[in-house]
Amino acid sequence: MSTATEQSRSRAGTRADRDTHFEVEQFYYAEADLLDAGRYADWLDLLADDLDYWMPTRTNRLRRQQALSVAARGEAAYYDETKESLAWRVRRFDSGMAWAEDPPSRTRHLITNVRVRHVDPAGDPGFTDDDLLVRSAFLVYRNRLEREENVFAGSREDVLRRAGDGFLVARRAILLDQNILLAKNISTFF
Fold this sequence. Notes:
By secondary structure, the chain is α+β, with helices and mostly antiparallel strands. It is 24% helix and 36% strand. Strands 2-1-6-5-4-3 form a six-stranded mixed β-sheet.
């Protein structure tokens, strides 16, 4: 067995080093700044062309049925998007035809509890141990017009792919803590 293969196998699933962890946190803070500034076209540049962006619905279940509380792939989802479909949404915002965002919302994305590991390709086909599996928590505050306020809390699980001196989001799974949204619409990116 080659040394490169042994090194790769030993890295799969392990925590990223301190410098990589810091880079990932800075990437997330820059992403949050872009979203809060409404710079959605620039935000799209942080997404891989083969992006999978998914936010399933959830339901209240008894403790013994918790495995069924989150919708599976192919079931109900708030978002089940690609980079192309997100780009379409961004173009719609800019067209003036997205009434739910005219005037636009003001948001604040707070990202915390960032944990970074190397992807284990054995458990996550299609990715390599050069890719990073990142789990984080978020709180997104949204204000629109005079009295519309929403708070979204939840977690994200991303796969980040190294691209030049930064990263691209190749996969994002978003899980809201709320099972019933009180917002009039969900035009916020997470």
